[in-house]
Amino acid sequence: MNILDKIVIRKKEEVELAKQRTAVQLLEKSIYFNRKPYSFKEFLLAENRTGIIAEFKRRSPSKGLINGAAEVGQVTKAYNDAGASALSVLTDTDFFGGEPNDLMEARAVNQIPILRKDFIIDEYQILEAKAWGADIILLIASILSPEQIAYLGKFAQNLGLNVLLEVHNQDELERSICANLDAIGVNNRNLGDFTVNIQTSYDLVNQIPDEFLKISESAISHPQTIKELRNAGFNGFLIGENFMKTNDPGIAMQGFVAQI
Question: What is 3-258's CATH topology?
């Protein structure tokens, strides 16, 4: 059993506990539930933005503690000011040190799209994302069937949310593409053993239909890589650890963007 299997098992337990703790009716009464989500495409392609989806992440199973001192509102606002097209906020607690309040705190101080970064396996989590102020949800092909991806994608879009599908190889891409998606991300990190290889993005970029936004995720640590990925056809670039491992992630992103 790899780490991804363990995460999914734990996630199923979490979802059942959350359903018992907070009824759907209470989620629907959230101050954010009826807000209109921002358009992922509009911000990602905006000329005054960088295409970077800047991530707030305290720790990970592969790296352990990355940054235990960063404050989510301050960091995400600094990302925004540095030109981020969107924000990614981890809400998984056990493996990544995130929590729902992180997303809501980021929402309170930012007017750009926010991705709920988590392992979504149930429509209840999509309702949570809407209630917490997210604009984008993540569906991971390696933990979902094509039928689940289509169903959860449609469910999210019916709530006005943007849907980002994450794939790791051509097989996942081919079996998972459906109409109920807005963007397809190529994760250069293998979630089974957490090795990274940027070549994964270059191998898959031309296999992604042009109707979808194309995102490269993980293993991006140099400004030159952004230029090369953009030339290859990518619209967006998810970066987290490279900024979060510094004492001041916002300043780190400013310096990075200055070199693009």
Answer: TIM Barrel (3.20.20)
